[in-house]
Amino acid sequence: MEAKIGTRNIKSLIFKGVVIFFAFVITIPLIIVLLYIIKQGVTEVNWHFLTHVPAPPGEKGGGISNALVGSFIMVLMASVVAIPVGIFAGIYLSENPRTKLAYYSGLCVDILQGVPSIVVGIVVYFWVVKPLGTFSAIAGSIALAIMMLPIIIRSTEQTLKLLPDSLKEAALSLGVPYHRVILKVIVPCGFAGILSGITLSVARVIGETAPLLFTALGNNFFSLKITGQMESLPHVIFTYATSPYDDWHDLAWGASFILLVFVLTLNIVTKVITRKWKIQL
Amino acid sequence: MENKRLELSNSQLKWEILFKRILIAMSIILVLIIIGVLITLILESMPSIKSLGIGYLWGKVWDPVQNIYGAYPFLVGTLLTSFIALIISVPFSYAIAIYLGEYNPKGWLSDLLKNTIELIAAVPSIIYGFWGLFVLVPVIRTLEINLHILPYGVGIFTASIVLAVMIIPYGASLGITLIRMVPSPLKEGAYALGATRFEVIRNVIMPYTRTGLFAGVLLSLGRALGETMAVTMLIGNTSAIASTFKDIIFGPGNTMASVIANEFTEADHTLYLSALIELGLVLFFVTVVINLIGKRIITRFTNN
Amino acid sequence: MENTIVKAENYNAYFGDNHVVKDVNISINKNEVIAVMGPSGCGKTTFLRGINRMHELIPGATAKGKILLDGENVYDMNAIYVRAKIGMVFQRPNPFPNLSIYENVIAGYLLNGIKVSKADKDVIVEKSLTSAALWKEVKDSLHKKGTFLSGGQQQRLCIARAIAMQPELILFDEPTSALDPISTSSVEVLFHELKANYTLIIVTHNMQQAARVSDRTAFFYMGELVEFDDTKQMFTNPTDQRTQNYITGRFS
Predict the structure, then answer these.
(1) How far is CA C197 from CA B254, C126, C200, in A?
(2) How far apart are CA C233 and CA C252, in angstroms?
(3) Nearest C-alpha of chain B: how many angstroms from A123?
(4) Is A23's CB within 8 Å of B229's CB?
């Protein structure tokens, strides 16, 4: 016998309730995590914290200045490499979608996107650390750059593909050479999308620890030497969180708070860029 | 004017060619990177592959002190954490996808939920691991005491929970896209026949998106397999396999990624290091294959 | 003849193996307005784009034969230079959305990095916009982006942009097919005014437009140049049967 319409409607309502429950319940862990980090970390952060290196265990005080500077330097160096390579590769993929190189290169971008970050760390260890004979910020930057590439490439490619061909044609018909058409018309028109890809990739790598474990390692002291070990925010969190000292745990909470602030700010900036800077076509 | 214009165009021609070559070179770099990764992993695992052979993969003992290496404990750890995480996360991912794809695609509430999901994905894994260590582990410990299990706190179960939260956004965002792609005429036809919301979802939307959602599961799996930091901090880092099922799930373990993270810098002899890298090679293959299959399914689905 | 500006000799164009323009021979004089008409897919646009070497930018597109611009074969010249010398206006108006109206007009100089003094730039902008019958409408908003302009105004902006390069020849690829009737007639009036200083070749899908604006008309069918004659003559007493069929609407 066919189920009564009443039963079926009730079933539908129950289902909706279940769906809503599961969908929204997941916000709870996130809120708990965020609130906890904020609560534990915000008390740690002060000017001293930001400008001093960690104190030896047992001593109060100390900070994460070496990690802050280290992260900044390594992300900067990684960006200097990843941004041009990524944008140019993205341009190639969007401009020549049907070539063999585009197929294989695109395949490699897809593969790279799925490679675990620890594997990138292993590989860069053999490429840079072993030949140079030392852990270094350079090695760390290269590992981070490799992780930034797929994000920048894909967002550049997708942004440029959305631009109409008529834009290119108009410029070419004026006697503008190809490289100027791309650099002075196409890329500026796709600027918002490309920039948001960059900010997204930075947001991703400033929190990455695994690629730095075997490349830049860490450094208890303040150092600007890029051919030597360098501390970074995520790595300092890892070291201090897993240490047995309470003081260092406190440092880790503070560092987590700072890292969270950076990552969230970058994500918000990305959203703002996408909304406000989009050029009306 | 004419001559200068011609001169300009002539010099521009050279730059054009250079630019096109640079574009090609940058794309080739991508290919070189992947080939390089593959070659490096294979080369450095060679010592282990040669002396340990295929038996490495089901060797149950991992004892660097005695130079005995077997990958089985880590395969078990990786598969368990990933599958448990997947099982836990799938209902949530689906619920979010159905809610945002079908029930409430627009509006402030849906935007809020969407942003929350993106936020979950944005939080670095080290932070999940750190938080898990200090907040979740004590809770699990209490739970284990109540269940009369050894209260490690850390272990495969704990790691799986945090992993589940971390991979929810991936399945969810893919699911949203897929569910929104279901053609309206299909749904409207069902409603016109008097179907309830639930029935339309179950009988029209789900079958239509089944393959795509499966791809979403694959991609989430790929993500879970490669996740390192949160797992390393929560899994207890033991390379032995417990005897009872209960102990395996609630006791400490290791995944391929976590054992590499922990022991790589301590590997002092060639075989040790090489054995670890062979794990990296296996991890590389598995995650790449799963990701590519997942992506292929999705491109085929979205092109239809 | 000294008066010839464009001459095609045995010009053929291909998309891969697809022979799209077959053995075209045509001679166009200075300050003429030439209409190129024919049914969809007859090769008229492909032929037009062969003149300023836009055709070869499509992957797999090739061409054979000669097209002479002022006696010189464009296929022996620097392609960038050819495109700078010949102006082109497209079917959909395509002003650059990231540039202001002012910058759009002098885009040919701007994007090429050609240094022009501010005073000269102002002169070029005003002259070009005036020739395109757009000056009065935009002179107070030169530094805004052109997105608020109507379709017809945007198309006239594109015409101004082409004129600013001081070409002798301007190619139009179905320039009014995306415009409303009022904008269309304003552009057609423009053709009449531009004729004094430029040679115009206009591909059009619209027979009546061809009859209205041109001195001579070329009729293309299935890749061949079927007939090329004085416009009045072609529309009242065409020589070829295929032309007759097209004009009387047997196919379109």
Answers:
(1) 81, 16, 10
(2) 20
(3) 6
(4) no
Strands C224-230 and C61-69: unpaired
- CA–CA separation, A121 vs B260, rounded Å? 10
- Which of C56, C69, C81 best probes binding to B when mutated, by most B CB atoms within 10 angstroms? C81
* Cross-chain Cβ contact B26/A95 below 8 Å: no
Contacts of B13 in chain C (CB under 8 A): 78, 80
Q: pTM of the full predicted structure? A: 0.91
Q: Which residues of B touch C (CB under 8 A)?
A: 5-6, 8-10, 12-13, 16
Chains that touch C (3 or more CB pairs under 8 A): A, B
Closest chain B CA to residue C83:
B9
Tens digits of per-residue pLDDT, A81-122?
999 999 999 999 999 999 999 999 999 999 999 999 999 999
How is residue C226 written in tokens? 């079927």
Question: Which of A166, A171, A174 has its CB closest to that of C92?
Answer: A166
Query: Which residue, A107, A117, A207, A237, is CA-closest to B223?
Result: A117
Split at pLDDT 50, 70, 90, the class of A2 is low
Q: Tell me the C-alpha distance between A252 and A50, whole Å.
A: 13
Chain A closest-CA separation from residue C147 CA (Å): 8
Q: Answer yes or no: are the C-beta atoms of C155 and C187 closer than 8 Å.
A: yes
| Closest-CA residue of chain A to C82 | A175
User: Is a pLDDT exceeding 70 seen at residue C252?
Assistant: no
Provide φ and ψ at A55, rounded to 5°: -85, 155
Cα–Cα distances in Å, from B202 out to B177, B178, B199, C9? Answer: 17, 15, 5, 67
Residue range B89-114: mean pLDDT, rounded: 87
